């Protein structure tokens, strides 16, 4: 499997929080979804990968070579979309394009203007007049306009309406269709990841607790719905977490097929990514 980005044992320590040996692989032609609750370490991981903060340990390789932000040729291959902007508030998208044309060898004005029209981003309006959603659409248009091989996106669809979100997700899928590009997409909108992600990496308290193909996760895990008496009779080794209601219990199991075989009368539904995250983070455990 050819990889574009590989992260090994990435660590970053603060007084109240630490990334603990995060491992992450992004194969060519794939979209990797990075999930976790607020404060779990998603943004810290991305900032450490791109050099926005200094890591305390670990190795990062891009196209099989050590990744350094000082390597200008390497930085031409990466597009980063994060909240906030490094542009002056008085600049318009048209003025930004003139600056970017001098920074990126493969900058394409035609592509940039096409995305501005597609996203309904005004080319002559100043950045200070843009809403949060408009700024994000502009950032995505920039990221897609200089032939980068890797998109690193932190909450790129946050604040966008469902129609625009769906449009952008389709664009992301088209971006990787040649099997030479890839995307790392951090998002709390897990339905977006259910639609387009190939792999899911789940960070909790600074540690990776799940790293698997999305379809395998949905296939392997299951949500059991049963009475409290039925729940008490279950093999607890398969239970990740559970919630007890007034009349029933719902539990996440890590081997749906095995549990169904042992208890053929149980109702076991396919989980959402939200279900998996919820029961790992908030579900009670025996």
UniProtKB/TrEMBL annotation:
Organism domain of life: Bacteria
Pfam families for this protein: ABC_tran (PF00005)
Domain ABC transporter: 5-230
UniProt GO molecular function: ATP binding
CDD domains: ABC_DR_subfamily_A
PROSITE patterns linked to this entry: ABC_TRANSPORTER_1 (PS00211), ABC_TRANSPORTER_2 (PS50893)
Keywords: ATP-binding, Nucleotide-binding, Transport
This protein's name: ABC transporter ATP-binding protein
